[in-house]
Amino acid sequence: MYPNPxxxxxxxxxxxxxxxxxxxxxLYEGVIRLINEAKVHNENGxxxxxxxxxxxxxxxxxGLQGQLDFENGGEISPILHQFYDNLFTxxxxxxxxxxxxxxxxxxxxxxxxxxxxxxxxxxxxxxxxSEQQDSSSSKTAVRGSDEILTSSSxxxx
Length: 157
Known about the structure:
The chain is mostly helical. It has six helices and no strands. The chain has helices at residues 5-17, 20-43, 47-66, 76-93, 100-133, 135-152. The model is unreliable at 132-148 and 150-157 (pLDDT under 50).
């Protein structure tokens, strides 16, 4: 893809202060906030500000995509890679004519994926407690997390 020091740096900084899973959730929240800002700028006719908000949001998405671990990520990494590719393409289309339906579509996809990450975080957090009691339960929880992410990443971005 493209070199993206901003997005990678955002992920790196966020993951230093919180768990990597929480960092991903926080970055999704940031992207959602920026796309909502782009929506407001579009409604106000401030197309330059809309462009800048979309640009910042897209850098975060590229940073998330750049952090995917294809070696250890199992089958979910390629699925997320495709999701981020599609999302990035849709985000670039926001800076075209009639962006309202695209903004709505992008926001819906981002919110769904954020909720998926929250659910994965919840399940893996609860499996950490179970892991201390029974090491095999964490393997089941991770497999369950892959299934959750796989079903959500098929969004029509």
